[in-house]
Design goal:
single chain, about 350 residues, alpha/beta, TIM Barrel, eight-stranded parallel beta sheet, two-stranded antiparallel sheet, 14 helices, about 10% strand
Length: about 350
């Protein structure tokens, strides 16, 4: 049993939201005595920071069909291009999607050419994808990783999400995929890392990163220790570290950074969004943790994403909301620049 699973059995409201916070949020006079939107932010500053940003964790239709009503991948790419964003990396829980990225990139190039003929400027965002190692692709399937990398425009390999043993435990279900037993990685996990490390030796400068997705924190730390011990050229991203499923306490977050991990802060898990109906995000915890980590560790191993693409939650508006909220809550402009542009660009080799 993981530490998180043990905590969930004892803590009524999860690992980081306590009863005091929920009492505050449900107070009958909440908007009048507790609401603090932070400092005002100029829209022009938001647009400036959005230009050149990378979102390396988003979703979109027609993939992810288990959530009907998602914004389409194509429309998201058009919107991101118009906003001046640099790159997007799409994720799907059931299949590889960098093949879709190849098709969309070709479409955007044709769109650019057609608009140029009319005297209009359109600069396509760079579109990428990857694969999530759930049961639908054979689980921890190194061959599927090799094929995905062979297609091109593959920038991330995600460990199991819906099939992760940790997620299944959280849902009260048996089974699922585990990638480590204590500090010892499974043979399948080692093979996937070997494939990725070998790929990252290519002479073209292409880079693929590992995202640890929904496995337990213990499994993540085992991976970080193994990669560090072996000196492997594989960057490891810990997904949405303030979402309850994958939440890190401050001590865990600092340990992950010390082990070489990159911590992802995702809008979908931090800031209320249209279409959200009954999910309580750890708002105060999220922004306090970012500021604490920047102060103690610096921003160089932190990155911002949206994880958006749910029904009623388009990625580009989510970016604007995330940037605005970061600035309003006292996260400095330069730090936002680093987390939204420099760190994700480094992680995917752009």
């Amino acid at each position: 049993m993981s530490k998180a699973t043990d905590d969930w059995a004892k803590m009524r409201f999860g690992r980081v939201i306590d009863e005091d916070e929920l009492n505050k949020r449900t107070h009958p006079a909440w908007p009048y005595i507790y609401f603090n939107p932070g400092q005002p932010v100029e829209p022009e500053k938001v647009e400036s920071l959005l230009e050149g940003a990378l979102d390396i964790h988003i979703h979109g239709a027609p993939l992810g069909g288990w959530l009907p009503g998602r914004p389409t991948m194509v429309q998201t790419c058009i919107d991101a291009s118009k906003a001046g964003m640099k790159a997007l990396v799409f994720k799907d829980h059931n299949t590889m999607c960098n093949n879709c990225a190849i098709i969309i990139q070709d479409f955007l190039a044709r769109m650019q050419k057609d608009l140029a003929a009319k005297g209009e400027v359109f600069t396509p965002v760079q579109v990428y994808g990857g694969i999530t190692l759930n049961d639908t692709v054979g689980g921890m399937n190194a061959k599927a990783v090799e094929v995905c990398l062979g297609y091109g425009r593959c920038k991330e390999i995600w460990l199991p999400s819906l099939s992760a043993g940790h997620q299944r435990q959280a849902m009260g279900l048996d089974g699922g995929i585990f990638v480590a037993d204590g500090d010892e990685l499974t043979a399948e996990m080692k093979k996937v890392l070997d494939v990725m490390a070998d790929y990252n030796k290519n002479t073209k400068g292409d880079v693929v990163a590992l995202s640890t997705c929904h496995v337990s924190n213990e499994e993540k730390f085992a991976i970080l220790k193994y990669v560090k011990k072996k000196g492997m050229n594989v960057k490891c991203i810990l997904d949405h570290v303030t979402q309850e499923m994958t939440v890190l306490t401050p001590a865990e977050a600092k340990e992950a950074i010390d082990l070489g991990g990159y911590l992802e802060f995702s809008s979908t898990s931090m800031v209320p969004w249209p279409g959200m109906q009954d999910w309580v995000v750890a708002f105060d915890y999220s922004f306090n943790l970012i500021k604490e980590l920047i102060k103690e560790k610096g921003p160089e191993q932190l990155l911002l994403t949206t994880d958006a693409g749910q029904p009623g939650h388009e990625p580009v508006p989510s970016w604007r909301n995330l940037i605005r909220t970061c600035l309003a809550q006292g996260v400095g402009e330069k730090n936002v620049e680093i987390m939204a542009k420099e760190v994700p660009a480094m992680l995917i080799g752009l």
